[in-house]
Amino acid sequence: MEVLLQQIINGLVLGSMYALIALGYTMVYGIINLINFAHGEVLMVGALTSWTIIVWMQEAMPGTPGWLILLISLLIAFVVCGALNFAIEKIAYRPLRNSPKLAPLITAIGMSILLQTLAMMIWKPNYKAFPTLLPAEPLHVGGAVITVTQIFILGATAVSLAILMYIVNYTRLGRAMRATAENPRVAGLMGVRPDTVISATFIIGAILAALAGVMYASNYGTAQHTMGFLPGLKAFTAAVFGGIGNLGGAVLGGILLGLIESIGAGYIGPLTGGVLGSQYSDIFAFIVLIFVLTLRPSGLLGERVADRA
Amino acid sequence: MKTNRLLYFLLVALALLVLPLLLQQGGNAWVRILDMALLYVLLALGLNIVVGYAGLLDLGYVAFFAVGAYLFALLGSPHLAEAFPWIAASFPDGLHLPIWAVIPLAAALAGLFGVLLGAPTLKLRGDYLAIVTLGFGEIIRVFLNNLDRPINLSNGPKGINQIDGITFFGIKLSRPIEVFGFEIASVSLYYYLFLALVIVSVVICHRLEQSRIGRAWMAIREDEIAAKAMGINTRNLKLLAFGMGATFGGISGAMFAAFQGFVSPESFSLMESVMIVAMVVLGGIGYLPGVILGALLLAALPEVLRHVAGPLQAMTDGRIDSAILRQLLIALAMISIMLLRPRGLWPAPEHGKSLAKPNA
Fold first, then answer.
1. Boundaries of domain holding B113
2. Cβ of B342 and A293 within 8 Å?
């Protein structure tokens, strides 16, 4: 029972990070129908930026409380990633908006390789120890262990989801975003500037990714220039799982994926008598995904969209 | 006019035949680059059937390459005999099936996998399909990586080595032969084999493109519902596209295994699939000359850049590693080519295009 509880906690933590990244994918997809392959790299840049700030602040201003350092580094990472994603969209995706559908996919892949290479040049390829800034003693909940960092992750996810829901549902920008997602031309006729809305979407997505990146790095204690790939891939899976283009679906898909992975990894060994080990945990997600999509071709919460005419 | 074309054709044919013999004077490494480029052309041609003709975005194509390579590796190396005593008992020298048995097997098995992947994904649209194929590719790779336990089938991350080369009518391609006192290196022999395969594939693809099947695929690509309304059996044709594409992947996988003499799961990463898609799209999707150009370019570019990167590295006092520089230039090339030529370097000539679609 304790094992199950522990795996559920780990799964929720993992899942909330997936959910934050998946939101970035799904928002971009909802508006311009593009798989933003470089999204995972934005996460990586966020994590490495905040690592730089943290290391610098710990040296320059010893005695500053950990949470303050974390907060400042997060804010700077938000700004850097927001600017980066804004630039990516402007350079690599905007000129191709009316091109064949696969063209921006290739520039996105190119961007992803480019960012990884640049990050390797700037930050060097070694693994960096991500400092623990929040109290390290874990709390015990009914036999399971949860760290303060994990509580911070769950809390920050909940807060940012609430803010995002507020922006999308109750503000002018959110209304413009929904309108653009529905139909950019008509939205334009109604006085919405699609370009501004798309830029705003990329910036919001980047902020969520930067947050997830810092969480990921502090949860695992390391950061490196290739760290964006796997969470990016999983989060994309989560977005599709929930129904791509659907915000609630991305969150649901992310959390379910996290739970499936961590519970699966915890139980597959004992269940199969040690024949299959946790090294298969990376593909549970895909097996479940294929199964779900056979039954529901547009994801869990996706609407049944007719094929484009 | 007629004789002119014939002359061109003969010149190109002659150049293609002499090319490896010239390059091998400068070292076998050059011919090796050429061989790998031809294998990539083969892969790109296969993927072009799925992505270019039928319009199904497949991000896990390398899985079929892996299936072909591992099949050849298992049947053409001592690994199975070492791992399973009963095989060793019945085949004391290991299984060394002739290529006439292995290649059709590789094609058939890869084709079967293609249909297996295609079947559950028939109902999926565009990007859902992309992620499922991507997942399929990863599943195959993870299995290859871990199937050394409980039974040692794939030898895990260590991979399988000591794979037989190809023997062709008694000619062993793995060692040089002498013709009229002129030595033809093993890599050049493989070059001729791969070139022949590429030519056969181009002919097959060209004929497919012109055929009823090819036209049906393109109809599905443009508008699946309309294609269905015209009486096209979209289910069977999509499965056929997956199967055909996979067959090409399987054969080039088998060639890859024989050529390298070694396979490991590392060669079949997601990045490899992505690069093959990039070859097809960068060159000119759905258009054979474009696809070939894209494959040659992306396969040869990194190797050529290795030689260009050296001087650049010296110029910057060795601060920029040549591997990093290479990656940087590839990324920049991908972005700038797409920005400058969104339809690919050598796109299909436009004909019968409908009016520009409004952004739906």
1. 36-269
2. no
Residue B56 lies in a domain: yes
Domain count, chain B: 1
Spatial distance between the Cα atoms of B221 and B207, rounded to a whole number of angstroms? 18
Q: Which of A240, A241, A284, A300 to mutate to test the interface with B (most CBs of B within 10 A)?
A: A240
Query: pLDDT tens digits, residue range B286-324?
Result: 899 999 999 999 888 877 777 776 677 777 666 667 677
Instruction: Tell me the per-residue pLDDT of A4-59, one tens digit each, with 9 for 90 and over.
Output: 888 899 999 999 999 999 999 999 988 888 888 899 999 999 999 999 999 999 88
* Residue B323 domain-assigned (yes or no): no
Residue written as tokens 């790939």? A229
Structural domains of chain A, ranges and CATH numbers in brackets: 2-295 (1.10.3470)
- The Cα B280–Cα B287 span in angstroms is 9
Q: How many CA atoms lie within 13 A of A281 on its CB side?
A: 20
In a domain, B24, yes or no: no
Residues in chain B: 360
Residue at B305 is within a domain: no
Alpha helices by DSSP H, chain B: 2-23, 28-47, 62-75, 79-83, 85-90, 99-121, 126-146, 186-210, 212-222, 224-229, 234-260, 270-283, 288-315, 322-340
Complex ipTM value: 0.84
In contact, B276 and B17? CB cutoff 8 Å? no
For residue B89, give the 3-state DSSP assignment. helix
Give the residue among A156, A30, A38, A26 at the shortest CA–CA distance from A86.
A38
Question: For the residues A123-134, what does the mean pLDDT come to?
Answer: 86
For B338, which of A106, A237, A279 is closest by C-beta distance?
A106
Residue A110 pLDDT more than 80? yes
pTM: 0.86
Task: Give the N- to C-terminal CA distance of chain B in Å, as an integer.
Answer: 47
Cβ-defined contact of B330 to A113 (cutoff 8 Å): yes
Q: Report d(CA A293, CA A296) in Å as an integer.
A: 5
> What pLDDT digit, counting tens, does each position of A166-202 carry?
999 999 999 999 999 888 889 999 999 989 999 999 9
Contacting residues of B for A279, CB less than 8 Å apart: 142, 145-146
Query: CA separation (Å) from B182 to A7, B21, B25, B178, B185?
Result: 67, 10, 12, 5, 10
User: Token digits for B88?
Assistant: 């060793």
Please give the span between the terminal C-alpha atoms of chain A, in angstroms, as a whole number: 52
Q: In which residue ranges of chain B is pLDDT below 70? A: 1-2, 92-95, 170, 181, 309-310, 316-320, 322, 351-360
Q: Compute how many other C-beta atoms are within 10 angstroms of the C-beta atom of residue B100.
A: 10
Question: Can you give the three-state secondary structure of A71-107, one letter per residue?
Answer: HHHHHHHHHHHHHHHHHHHHHHHHHHCCCCCHHHHHH
Q: pLDDT at position B360, please?
A: 42
Q: Using CB atoms, which residue from B121, B139, B330 is nearest to A283?
A: B139
